[in-house]
Amino acid sequence: MQARQLLAASLFLVAFLALAGYALDRAFIKTARDRLNERLQSYALSLARETDFARDGSFVDPFNLPDARFSRPGSGLYAEVVFPNGHWDSESAQGPQLPAAALLPRGTSRFEGPLPMREIDGSTGEVYRYGLGLVWSSDENNPEAEFLYTIYVYESTDALSAQVQVFRSALWRYLGGAGLVLLLLQGTILRWSLLPMRQVIDELKRVQRGQAARMSERHPRELEPLTDSINAFIESERENLDRQRNTLADLAHSLKTPLAVIRSRLDDPTADGELLRDEVRMQVQRMNDIVSYQLARAASRGHALFAQPIAIQPHAEQIVTSLEKVYADKGVICEFELDEGMQFYGEPGDLQELLGNLLENAFKWAKSRVLLTVKPVPCDDGRRPGSLIAVDDDGPGIPPEKVALILQRGVRGDERVQGHGIGLAIVQDLVRAYRGEMEVKASEELGGARFEVRLPPGL
């Protein structure tokens, strides 16, 4: 992940610096050309002030040139005056073959280039040219005495190219240095920002190697959902493993005694055949009860940590319909208070066990009415809400001092009522497996008992 992010960021940074360098290069060239245009224009205006013609239209050499390079051959700065019957070149233009020049209209200026020219040594070169169109008048009252002339100022591209080269060298040197520093800084920041992820990976490897029991609690807030889910998964898997081991151990321990009794009876040569069959039948029934009990216990614990949501109402209606047939002689009616769209996040069998045992217990003790309530428990941190599942009846109720007793496995609230005393214990085990809470209290609405189950919000 770090390598991919660093590669992507590096490519983006290189592309950005390249575009920035190109933009700065273009801006510098345009600025340099504009300054060259202004400088050549200044030379042309200075020459215009020094330019003079005789009455016959012949050109009079200027005495004061704006730059000494105009008087030095091959200096790279040239001047030319074009008029109707000829042209004048500065001394610097003696030798180089300047580009062809034409008269420009009055008041017209033109900057152009680079234009090709032939140097003194015969090689070719390029120049920038600025032209300014003017009018000379020997008599202001006689328009026929006026004629057009144009002043051209040339400068070799060598000076501008040298400036651009120096600028480009400095630009790419500084951009390259800045890019290298930014890449190092970016790598350091990326490595620092991903340090919590590496710590999570290291902790996970330690858990896999058995060097740690679970992920630690000290992680950034953004990674807490991940580490909490991993810890929940680890705990769930360990609970499932412990449950399987305990179930097998309990089953083996429970079957050991009946098997020992059967073996001892079979080994007894004086045992009566009819009594032996009754004893074996009784022990087989006992083993069958033990197996049923252990299977019910195993089914009541453990669930998929990230199960798909299950609609509660269809399961509740199915269970209530069956119970109303079983207890038809009592005429018990079950009422529903279910928020629309309520869902259970767990195993379908767990939902059946939870609702089935609670509702069956309520039908068993109710006089005529049972109330099933299912509501969401809101959560402030953005997780999915929890659930409130409550079953009320109008039966005799449960004294507070007997609540802990009836929740024990194998204990019945009234020995005269048929049952095995494990239904509510299974419900309690299920609630614990889902990290919820169960409360038994008096029903304020129906007057009997109220079994209230609260399942926590999801991860």
Automatic annotation (TrEMBL):
Q: Which SMART domains match?
A: HATPase_c
Q: What is its EC number?
A: 2.7.13.3
Which parts of the sequence belong to the HAMP domain? 191-242
Mind telling me what this protein is named?
histidine kinase
Q: What is its main location?
A: membrane
* Keywords annotated in UniProt: ATP-binding, Kinase, Membrane, Nucleotide-binding, Phosphoprotein, Transferase, Transmembrane, Transmembrane helix, Two-component regulatory system
Gene3D superfamilies xrefs:
1.10.287.130, Histidine kinase-like ATPase, C-terminal domain
Q: What class of enzyme is it?
A: transferase
Q: Name one GO molecular function term.
A: kinase activity
Q: Name the source organism.
A: Cognatilysobacter xinjiangensis
Q: Which residues form the Histidine kinase domain?
A: 250-459
Against Pfam families, the record matches this protein to:
HATPase_c
Q: Does the keyword Phosphoprotein apply?
A: yes
Question: What are the subcellular locations of this protein?
Answer: Membrane
Reaction equation(s) it catalyzes: ATP + protein L-histidine = ADP + protein N-phospho-L-histidine
